[in-house]
Amino acid sequence: MNILSNAVKYNSSAHPYVNITFRTYRQKLLIDFEDNGIGIEKHELKKIFRKFYQAENVKSDIKGSGLGLYLVFSIAKIHGWNITAKSEGRGKGAIFTLSLPTEV
């Protein structure tokens, strides 16, 4: 839910969207959440899942605790899953990929 709400919250487009795609790869189910939001600077991609981390220069009217993506990461890890993020930078949207093993 956090990934979906962030896709809307951090979006300045007149027509925000989130495209959710399911695919398989090497005995994993991958769920991609692709948005047309404000994007993430490349140097911040590794930091966004840290506890209390908030990206620099995001929309100033948005308040947050910096815990949302940390909780997504932590819950995924507890279940043996993985979450990653990709973005080409500011204004270019983001893709969050949740990876679940199909075999235990």
Order of helices and strands: HEEHEE
Q: Work out the count of structural domains.
A: 1
| Rounded average pLDDT | 90
* Helix share, percent: 10-25%
Assess the beta-strand content as a share of residues. 25-35%
> Count of helices?
2
Low-confidence stretches: none
Count of β-strands: 4
Based on secondary structure, the structural category is: alpha+beta
- Spatial order of strands in the largest sheet: 1-2-4-3
Based on the coordinates given, report the CATH architecture.
2-Layer Sandwich
Report the radius of gyration as a whole number of Å. Answer: 14 Å
The global form is: globular
What does this entry look like structurally?
There is one protein chain. The protein has helices spanning 2-9, 68-78, and strands at 18-24, 28-35, 82-86, 94-101. With 104 residues, the chain is of the alpha+beta class. It has one domain (2-101): Histidine kinase-like ATPase, C-terminal domain (Heat Shock Protein 90, 2-Layer Sandwich), CATH 3.30.565. It has a four-stranded antiparallel beta sheet with strand order 1-2-4-3. The mean pLDDT is 90.
